[in-house]
Structures
1.
Amino acid sequence: MSAAICCLFDSCIHARTANCGSRLFPCLWKTLTLRNDMMTLHHEVPETQNRGSNMGTEAVIVQIILNGLMLGVQYALIAVGFTLFFGVLDVINFSHGDVFMLGAFIGLILINIFSKLGMMTGGTSYVLVLFLIFFLCMLVIGLIGIIFERIAVKPVSTGPPLMALLATLGLAIAIREAVRLFYPLGSENKQFPELLKPIFAGTNQAFEIKGVLIRYDNLLIFGIGIAVIVFTSLYINKTKMGLGIRAVAQDSEAAMMMGVHRNRVVDVTFLIGSALAGLTGILNGLFYNTVVFNMGAMGGIIGFSAAVIGGLGNIYGAIIGGFVFAIFSSFHTQGFRVYGCRRLWCSNHLSRFQTIRPPRREDV
Amino acid sequence: MMTRTFNFIDFLKIAVIEVAIFFLIMVFFNIESVWTLVAGLILVVAVVVYAKVWKRQFSSFGEIFSLNKPVVLGVLLVLLLLYPLVGPLMIKQNTYWLLTLIQTGIYIILALGLNIQLGSTGVLNLAVAAFYGIGGYTAGLLALRLGIPTIITLPMGGIVAALFGTILYVPLYKTKGHYMALVTLAFGLMIVLALDNTEFTGGPQGLKAIPEISLLGYSFLTKPGGLHFYTNYYYLTLFIVLLAVIISYRFYNSWVGLTLATTRDDEIAAKCCGVNSNIWKGISFITGNVMIGVAGALYAHMIGFISPHNFSFAESLLIVAMVILGGLDNILGIIVGTVILWILPEKMRVITEYRIFIYGILLLVIPMFRPRGLLPFKPRKYHPSVVKVKD
């Protein structure tokens, strides 16, 4: 287990910073902290990050942890889905990352519909409409999740457990390509509207405590995520259906003997897991203001890794795994910004990340 | 059991059927319009369904095929050997399909290597592409930087991949099940990023102008009798594929394969019977990596250019998909799965944009109808009296 974590953290470090040399020779890179012109190549560095060099060390660390928490809540939500599916059905659902992507796009569609209807004009009803969008997206994605379970997981349940991996992999490719092909201009980065800003229209969008800058909308994203996580864990621990889920996860046959309706439990599990992924899609879109059709691939890997780190089948493990993963990666990414190694970041950025992830998504 | 006497009529039947299939495949390569392709695929599916529903008419053919295995394989081998000679006469885009077939061969080697790990032993290796890349980079670097002859670099690719596999196995053997998959996944990501960021290996631009294979002074860029130079690589790949298939069958049929299978099916029971599961898992992991590394070296020499992007996680998933789709621990099934998953997408280039979409749908639909793989694993038969074993 510890070996797994070690290896994973290594990969996480590399994935986020995309540089091995810098990790091996930190002193060397420190001497290279020239604020050279290459920096300008780096497109619009957000306000919070530019302030890095003026901040005290403690403030920087707190800022990094806060950024990690904002991301962590999203990773945790994806990981909870993975862990639920694994617990109940013993399958690794590779399409989960793409369901997360689908959530962002369905959120985008819903926002477009609502703004066409003229319901996004601010005022007190604005928050209600926002909640409606969140709820509808979760519902739609949840139902889609049930359909996906019916077509990709149930038919292969007689085969070896790895077969579900293959079917969900095919499903993931199909979803990704469907969005790319059938969403208008689907292969481009999509601007995600900054829905949360109008709520704080009267304020200056952020507050500062001892040099740590906190944006209200990020705080709200964090709050929504935490609330949903708490709600989910309450549902699983306190209700009858939650008891059924836990029972099936523990021993499916024994649970059926005790009168648990297994198929219904599986449906509810997929409803919950997919709905969480859908919500994460919207939160992710709000956080980065960009969505793209292939963001599910990395989301899926991170969610799976977080779930495995925490221990597959354990919800709290997944939550903790998500946060640990996010804070760790945030530390490393930000560490470079603090030391001013933007040149490396730049070259990597230009060469590679554009193909894997859209540029703006790296500016966490 | 019927006596195994050589029957000329049977031989003729087998030869006619195989040659017919061979020419049908060539016609399939030549199809360019979408609707002809769809019609052809529907026809193939119809024939398969017909054969399944009316088993009786086909059972006599099946019997002939199953009783005369050496003849079947011999005719198949002759046809495969003849392909580069017949191809230019029959196929419009001959070079392209020759290259596709070579790549199919490389993927068969990869899938068979993974099968020893995943199918026989149950070690889910999600870093196949990384070992593939290690093999390729080893061969490329040795040939480029040191000028070592290719007869050495080809096996060296496998050996270095095995060395890396041994190093990875140290943390790996402490883990189990999905944690094992996670460690290999992380290793795969790490290797790609390391290759991407090291100056020595050319960084993201990769290695360019890797010299071609030359064996005993015969450069593989010479054109044998006016044929394309890929013909050389075709025969070499065919040879290595045959080697891989033979090794896989020997593995499967020996007590080693049985030991590995016990480890996969029930590790505790295997340990109780005195099987040191850690050692056997390691052996299978490393053996698989040798095959994967050799495939990488072959690829590097043939294409002449490799970059870290050739060895991404998606590549690993593709190879895992080939093994699972074909049927775990069934060598023939894996070959069929590889051919389907590599040739069909190539053929689907006629539908341009929708290619990957249809590919995903196929990956989703095939398991619906064959949940245990195209050709599922069958229990081993050790004695002729054991005719049917229910699993």
Note: DSSP finds 15 helices and two strands in chain B.
2.
Amino acid sequence: MNKANFYSTRLFLNAVIPVMKEINQEYGYFGNRNCKVQISVDTSEGRLGTHFVVEDGKMNTVLACTDDADVTFHFPNEEHFINFFKGKSTKLPKIKGLGKPGIVVATFRTLLKMSALLGAKEPPKEEAVKALVVKLFFYLLSTGISQLNKLGHEDVVNWTKTSPNRVYGWSVDGYEEAGAYLRVKAGKTKAARGMYTRSQPFFTMRFADLDSALAILLSTGDLLQLTAEKKLIMEGAPEYGAQIGDYMMLVGSYVQ
Amino acid sequence: MGITYTSLDTTKLSTAEIYAKVLCDLAEDDERIVAITADLAKSTKIGAFHERFPERFYNVGIAEQNMFGIAAGMAKCGLIPFTATFAIFNSCRGLDQVHTDICYQNLNVKMLGTHAGTSFGQAGTTHHSTEDIAIMRSMANLTVIVPADGTETANVVKAAIEHEGPMYIRINRGFDQVVYDSMDYDFQIGKAVTLNEGSDLTIIACGSAVFSALQAAREIEAQSGIKARVLDMHTIKPIDADALRKAVHDTRRIITAEDHNVIGGLGGAVAEVIAESGMACAFKRLGLQDKFSPIGYHEDLMSHHGIDTNGIINAVEELLKMDFEEDEDWEDEV
């Protein structure tokens, strides 16, 4: 199997699909249900999956397969899985648990909303939706970089293994809950949500407002112009901004 | 006042010579300024003041206690006496008078302690002054300043005239490595100068250790991309607590470097602020590790005590390995 597919599969499972939790939190597709929902794929290394434990409608994410999911969306191979999540194929996965249509529908609606939000070409109109999209991207990118390190991606590993204990943050002024950060230390990484509060991060990609963040995340704006207008503020040494930007692009290349 | 000194002057004049020259320049316009020494006019370079203003210069002989007592009396009469002696004599031999005659009465006496730290190297351990910052900063009312080089010393002398109250100015013997190109930077008593920006760690230094710290920061950035903030903490008291708290918040790793015992000096002063701030950080104090110094050249002694460039680089590498938060959980939040 090629390396790109290897990283794509695992980033979708461990960094992209987990943001369904945030979408459900916003839209409440699962109502007050209690259930387990799983998305899995057969790979050359065996079955991989991510499942959600839904309690009173609230999702908790587990980066592993479970045997007792109420509903499972299963992909028989990685190509099918990747093409589906990249929007290149509309071929549906095998669905186990069709006898629980409410859960199946809720899962579909969450997936479709994720596709609409992350695949948007233009920024949404509503402020709350803008904040959600920014949050999804920040979570996805910070987790994606960390996952690439854990998966042994050579470029990322070379970067992290010599790093002292540093924190890289992403934030939008006035929307602290949308922030995310990545801690790096001597080859280890941890992606986390919200603002890092123990101290000022080593480097922060800080946006003055949601529109500026979306302009960069949806590639509709000009980075240099936003920087010149102080809509994008690189807090820390600029070379680290370029570096973290490269890794954001790298994650994007695998899950776009 | 139109006094300007540059790094060119500091290559021709020792730090003490700059001190005396600036004092003379200021004394031209301010008749309140007088100078007193205890038989160290030549060594402390205050003799230059004698040549310009013989009627405003007093040598009390080898009698430091008298010097401080007389200075206190002069200050009571509205003069601004500048005393000059070795730092060790200022902080130890004459301490009773410094304490009771000057500090207790909050008098406007400016005390110059020269040959501080280990800068008197070959003169012997008895003439090293590695406790003076600790002693002097515990004197109520006293401002304690340790300039980084000759140019900063010029700024300190200017500021000392404008500052009301007792002050201890601690300088080295001979020439200092040049940190500042000119006097034209934002020097304020009680405000640290940021010489290098960085967010990996902060090196806080005073006196001759400032140059070492700056060199170390440049070398570690060139070698390994580590970004070290360097603060010239010229005023030990009142210390710039805002700059310290910001350094802890921004960089979470703090190294102090001083040519002084680590107990009670700059490191002690910084530790007090950090402890009271309630913020956690990795912390290391460089200086004499509660021991007297051997005898040798100043540069060699700086190296011996780990406060030269290499010593600070080693400390940075050590500090970067220290943890300041839980390390067990490296699972991504999802």
Note: The first helix of chain A runs from residue 3 to 16.
